[in-house]
TrEMBL record:
GO terms for biological process: cell wall organization; peptidoglycan biosynthetic process; regulation of cell shape. This is Glutamate racemase. Belongs to the aspartate/glutamate racemases family. PANTHER family: GLUTAMATE RACEMASE. Pfam families: Asp_Glu_race. Pathway: Cell wall biogenesis; peptidoglycan biosynthesis. Its EC number is 5.1.1.3. It catalyses: L-glutamate = D-glutamate. The active site is at C80 (proton donor/acceptor), C192 (proton donor/acceptor). Gene3D superfamilies: 3.40.50.1860. Keywords: Cell shape, Cell wall biogenesis/degradation, Isomerase, Peptidoglycan synthesis. It comes from Ignatzschineria ureiclastica. It is an enzyme of class 5 (isomerase). Substrate binds at D15, S16, Y49, G50, N81, T82, T193, H194.
């Protein structure tokens, strides 16, 4: 019989909605030497971040981070490009002892891989207008032409579940992706954590020359590196040497929005690689 052991590693994740499940799924597909507990907050009651002011987004991130700190998380992953662009530096300043991993459009790898020097980035309006994105482009892709694609409607497709309806998806994506046919784009950056759930549909509407860049796995690697630097992964290994006991993965998935909708989203978007699942609505 499998024993319920203490959870030795606690990882917090925040997104404006359920797009960050694409990051969570990447975590769930990797193995750890000990037990882990993921606390995910979907701030669906305050969607969409992409159309909110910077001040509003930061205040939401501050409140949700404070909530996760009461759960004694070891690391925070801001599983949202828009929230990262607005708040990651401010949160790192406020909580210098907390490892905080942000998600940014993968400008650097796209600039390194492009052969045509034409890169497209699909993101929310807030991310596309952010100084953080501008800084990334100036630093890594000043030699490239950047083609922005506003993906606000893409976010809505995932949040509403309409991404499963190909007739609806195809109409929206065909219009949004015209730029990759009008210009010799060969790299398309998925600059929002919602967008990997649209991968199959996106591929139907882009030329074969275009590569999709999804940063999810690199976020997991970055998180593990940071945990290694502070000795957390080493302690996880040394504390779990009991033979014959499989490490357990616990999920606590929380929403500030409608619970019925959230249950449906979890059932279709979250990988089943876990042992225990708890769903919860929070007022925060």
């Amino acid at each position: 019989m499998q024993q319920n052991l203490p959870c030795n590693l606690k990882i917090g994740l925040i997104d404006s909605g359920v797009g960050g499940f694409s990051i969570l799924n990447s975590f769930l597909h990797r193995s750890l030497p000990g037990n882990s507990h993921y606390y995910y907050i979907a701030d669906s009651g305050h969607l969409p971040y992409g159309l909110k002011s910077d001040r509003y987004i930061y205040q939401r991130m501050l409140a949700l981070t404070q909530y996760l700190l009461t759960l004694k998380i070891d690391v925070l992953v801001i599983a949202c490009n828009t929230a990262t662009a607005v708040s990651v530096d401010l949160l790192r300043t406020r909580y210098p002892e907390l490892p905080i991993i942000g998600v940014e459009p993968a400008i650097k790898p796209a600039a390194e891989m492009t052969k045509t020097m034409h890169i497209a980035v699909a993101a929310t309006e807030s991310t596309l207008k952010s100084q953080r994105l501008s800084n990334l482009v100036n630093r890594y892709a000043s030699h490239c032409t950047l083609h922005p694609i506003t993906g606000t409607k893409w976010v809505d497709l995932v949040e509403s579940g309409e991404y499963l309806d190909s007739s609806v998806v195809d109409k929206i994506l065909a219009k949004s992706l015209e730029v990759v046919w009008d210009y010799p784009v060969d790299q398309l950056i998925l600059g929002c954590t919602h967008f990997p759930f649209l991968t199959e549909a996106i591929i139907r509407h882009i030329p074969e020359r275009v590569s999709l860049i999804n940063p999810a796995r690199s976020i997991v690697a970055q998180c593990d590196q940071r945990l290694s630097e502070i000795g957390k992964l080493a302690s996880l290994d040394s504390n779990n040497q009991t033979e014959g006991i499989e490490p357990q993965v616990h999920l606590t998935l929380m929403t500030t929005g409608n619970m019925d909708n959230f249950k449906q989203q979890v059932s279709t978007l979250v990988s089943p690689h876990y042992h225990q699942l708890r769903l919860q609505r929070i007022d925060c």
